[in-house]
Amino acid sequence: MADFHQNGVITTLHNLSPRPLEELESELVKFSKQRPMALILPSLYSELEGPAMPNILSELGKVPYLNHIVIGLDRADQSQYQKAVNFFSELPQEHRILWNDGPRLQALDNDLRKLGLAPREKGKGCNVWYCMGYTLAVDKAESVALHDCDITTYSRELLARLIYPVANPRFNYEFCKGYYARVAADKINGRVCRLLVTPLLRALKKVLGYREYLEYMDSFRYSLAGEFSFRRDVLTDLRIPSDWGLEIGVLSEMHRNYAHNRLCQVDIAHRYDHKHQDLSLRDKSTGLSRMSIDIAKALFRKLATQGEVFTPETFRSIKATYFRIALDFVETYHNDALMNGLKHDLHEEEKSVEMFARNIMEAGQVFLDSTNTTPFIPSWNRVVSAMPDVLERLLEAVELDYKEFSGK
């Protein structure tokens, strides 16, 4: 049973009662007549062969209210794209696959690159950005949800609860962030959120003083969740990073564009587990090490846009303050785990904190050195202004790929 506490400045929608899924879906079917709904699925081809995606596909096949599903497919050659077309053909809903590595979408990407408008690096941010552009182009939804494709505990109730706040015409929310308890296999997961994001936000508050943005970010119960939903008009002016800072970047953009009462977070799952990243203690270019650097950079960039001035001394203070706060959190989570009969490796947790502390300094140095970089993918408003037919070209490329390789 969840608590009903409202923390911070963002409305929290809890899971307070065992409401039947059929009742939720029945309401969403009614809402869909006024606010048609779509789902974006950013996926690697390898996830189609993993343990999570077959169940996700099976669950989505039972969803009665979705008007359209957009799948962004990364790291797939032609034969793999054809297999993906066959894989997703089971869906009863209308759907399309963006073959991001295919020649047609690559040609469009190259044209955007010549104008300085393409994502600077491949990854989830790039995938999501093109899916958002396609959602605008196809224009079949007013409310859109997005979730990852590696959720091993997936139930379609997650999607229903995620999209409900932006689908209900009586609510005024433009954006909704999903959250959940990261407990699975008898242990507490979510190290990056627990041991980096929250203590770093608290350290920034202590070093920099009260900042409304930091209070806003600290209001989210699981800021790194890959599940969120939004109204269609959010997509046009959204600028997101293409690196691991995607989730933090999206929250920062919503802070810039909307009042707090237009945003909310919702409890979407009692149990949630997905593919876990390696800690990568010796390689800053991969795993949780790379993720922690990108997340810290995203926070520093946002604060800088609000006039915050950072120096090497500032980052040293932030790192020292973070380290003490994070170690206290390690003890807190250790006691919480023991109280609930869960496993908790104190040594591994402290190793994570030590790495995150080093990477805060690394992120700070990268931030100070990277004076000429443009970290965000341009908004679709800007792209359309520079290339007026870009959405039509995107729509045509996806459709031609589908027709050529689906046999339809």
TrEMBL record:
InterPro entries: Nucleotide-diphossugar_trans (IPR029044). It comes from the Bacteria. This is Cell wall biogenesis glycosyltransferase. It comes from Sessilibacter corallicola.
